[in-house]
Design a protein that fits this description.
five-stranded mixed β-sheet; 12 strands; globular
């Protein structure tokens, strides 16, 4: 690395610690323009509740970059090991340099959009990594210093709501995957397929209504064997009509687990299995739990392609585990498959406990399964929300409803306000939960 590059990066660090978070990405882009020539740069820092996503550069790129595109990098790019290659940014395939940092509880990622085929010299990468670590740690400290008690409470509630929305989304995804498995199974005739599909839907609704009651019955603790069997039952239902063999490795001891820990492990494993099912060529999935004095380790293996690509949404799983005080380790061996190791401590974070309490409270009050939250929406807003829940982007929704894209954005903003949620994902999860009641 040339001395001039080192001076530029150090100068960038000195300037970045003096600016407010909203100006950070613009300052970084300008300062590093010669060291890392780029068309655009974006960052995702989940610990910054006000503005976690920032982007500057070519407006044709920055106007369409989403947090959902950057989030997977937090899980798939190892902190301290910058990655260069082709990835989906702004809805198109771009050459990118991504740098992840673990110098904040929920991690962070920086993504440079380079010229097609361009690579940054390997000797430059360590200094860029060090710069991003400094910036991540600095802004995490700033975030914690801003009215600590109020901000901590606000962040805990916001993160808990994210966990609840993600769990609802996973539950619906699992149900839909099971239904599709039945409907696509050519060995089942139409009448039997309809009957089985109805049974699956009714069972899923019953599970949503009774899950909180089963948790209360465990009185705060759950035998490891029973906790694992509940996971096994849900996975067997999910995979029963899919061409995937499920192998189960139950824990060797039946010690009592905190119910929060058992629940978090079941949710994380189910999310991992759903992610694996999105790959081609998966014919076998093996799930095992191991209990030790410090916590629980769940291992999920498949026999798929063993390649990390866009179809594996591991960033969301890693972020949720990090918020709970756990972590996700990923091992991909091309031609052999993927191994995910989920580690959860005995004492989960306050965010995990708040999320579990919020889920139980909402379930017990019947608020998750009622259509009341949607009563405040107008007809057009309901139409927009329905398509949003189907995963459509604003442009597609506008074309479908024959309205402008700016009108769609206006409706989405109103929907988030009326439903008292902070993201499209939460709104979609709430719609799916109430629509199925």
């Amino acid at each position: 690395m040339e001395n001039s590059e080192a001076v530029t990066v150090l100068t960038a660090a000195a300037r970045l610690v003096q600016v407010e978070p909203p100006q950070m990405i613009a300052e970084l882009s300008e300062t590093l323009a010669t060291v890392v020539p780029h068309r655009a740069v974006a960052n995702l820092t989940p610990q910054c509740a006000g503005s976690p996503l920032g982007a500057v550069g070519d407006p044709r790129i920055t106007s369409v970059i989403t947090g959902a595109e950057l989030a997977p990098f937090i899980g798939s790019v190892s902190a301290g090991r910058p990655w260069q290659g082709e990835a989906q940014i702004g809805g198109t395939e771009e050459t990118v340099l991504t740098v992840a940092s673990d110098h904040a509880p929920r991690g962070s990622v920086l993504a440079f959009v380079l010229a097609p085929g361009h690579r940054v010299a390997d000797e430059t990468l360590p200094l860029i990594q060090a710069l991003w670590d400094v910036v991540t740690a600095h802004f995490n400290r700033l975030t914690l210093e801003i009215e600590p008690s109020v901000l901590a409470q606000s962040r805990a509630v916001a993160m808990a709501r994210e966990v609840v929305a993600a769990e609802l989304s996973d539950a619906h995804t699992a149900t839909l995957a099971a239904l599709l498995g039945v409907l696509r199974n050519r060995q089942i005739d139409d009448a039997a397929a309809r009957t089985t599909a109805v049974d699956l839907a009714l069972n899923a609704l019953a599970d949503l209504r009774t899950d909180s009651q089963r948790d209360r019955a465990d009185a705060g603790e759950e035998p490891a064997g029973r906790a694992f069997q509940r996971l096994a039952d849900s996975l067997q239902t999910l995979l029963r009509h899919l061409p995937v063999e499920l192998e189960l490795d139950a824990p060797s001891n039946d010690r009592l687990l905190p119910s929060d820990l058992a629940h978090a492990a079941r949710v994380a494993v189910r999310a991992a299995v759903l992610a694996m099912l999105g790959q081609d060529g998966v014919r076998r999935i093996r799930v095992g739990w191991r209990i030790n004095p410090t916590g629980l380790q769940a291992t999920v293996r498949d026999d798929g392609p063993g390649v990390l690509d866009d179809r594996l949404d591991l960033g969301r799983i890693a972020e949720r585990l990090r918020a709970q005080g756990g972590r996700l380790d990923v091992e991909a061996v091309p031609g052999w498959g993927l191994t995910l190791r989920i580690m959860l401590p005995v004492a989960l974070s306050d965010v995990a406990k708040t999320a579990r309490a919020l889920t139980t409270t909402l379930s017990a009050a019947g608020k998750i399964l009622t259509a009341e939250p949607l009563a405040a929406l107008g007809q057009r807003e309901l139409e927009v929300l329905e398509r949003l829940a189907q995963g459509h982007r604003n442009r597609v929704i506008a074309d479908n409803l024959h309205i402008s894209e700016s009108t769609v954005k206006y409706h989405v903003a109103n929907i988030l306000t009326k439903l008292a949620v902070t993201s499209r994902t939460e709104a979609a999860a709430l719609y799916l939960a109430t629509a199925s009641a």
